[in-house]
């Protein structure tokens, strides 16, 4: 983020952040992680609107230098588009959140993608379902790199995240990607980020990870890997001393306590970093002061908090200390102590932030619900031909970001009737081959002979196919062509035309490769 970012310096120092961008990432990640537990888009809109007002807008301030930074210019442009007037100098009218997309209820992990003026936040929820509990219980260590081993359940979750797609989409809009999560979600975000860095080391400049209540991830070699590659600044782990759930895995052989140095949120609103040597680990601000170093020894502060929280051994108290809402309350307390005057204008009589805003500002649609923010495939065009027996259609969809994660759920309809997709093959990152069966009514073929004929491909139209992963589903209409046809892709790749030929009806794998311009089809495949 460029110099001159509008974040109060006192808030940056209070969080022990490296810079303004780091402080903003921590605060916004907290908002995104809490909202990731709610799968209803409308509820998420209202929650984000409230959290932006309570946590983000109070820490923003109008910088004195001019012209404004590119970050501030984006914030002002976003604000002007909503209010139809320039924001005031005290930054009370600034709007930072732009759009959000919530994952499908059938997704492997509850998540959301929040788009802001300068970043894309990909947030994962913690343990909610029996499937999540199975992931937590799968604590055997599995290799992720040479000598580095991690929790198998967490690794499986991280591998289900289409990180390449998320990173490419963030960079395409000149935004940085911030992975974040709470508990199991924090472990998923951290390992998904690490896997991206192992595959694309250059991404370290534009990707960050903020985890709340993240449990131990793996062995000492995993921590050493991060240190050796100088990726420590990419990761931020935030915990509370009273939270004992995050310490459960420490008793398992091979696990180390902390993936990266942990920032502890104390009950009195301070943020400290506990280190093995007993000294505070902190960043100096521009004035040469070290705010974390002037408080009492961090190890002693955390140890005292542990002693005072001994009564939290009951399950109900332990769950309360681990809840994301509790972390949010602690974080707000730290920010209020650091910049009390900034929060005064956002307080009402009941202590909940609610500044005097217009009815337009109260509209929950201020944070737009938008599709295709999260990792998802994009279909551009598709062609299909009947198989040899005429009972199925082989459709080749071309597009972008196609893989087994973004296309894990398939859908097809013929004339509005749902069809079964018998199989699908990811041919390349821009091609998907799908086999579609004729629609059935109560397990039997439709009574009309004119629909889905075994010899006439026109009866299969209109045919629409769709694919989705954890987020939006993309659809495309399939252009049916005769079996005895030669496909010719035009020079600009914009269309596919068919010309009648005298070929046999049988198409083998080599013809599929030539006609569909694909390269990963089994030689035994026949249409």
Automatic annotation (TrEMBL):
A Pfam family hit: Lipase_3
Signal peptide interval: none
InterPro entries, sorted: AB_hydrolase_fold (IPR029058), Fungal_lipase-type (IPR002921)
Residue ranges constituting the Fungal lipase-type domain according to the UniProt record: 123-245
Gene3D superfamilies the UniProt entry points to: alpha/beta hydrolase
GO terms of biological process kind: lipid metabolic process
Protein name: Fungal lipase-type domain-containing protein
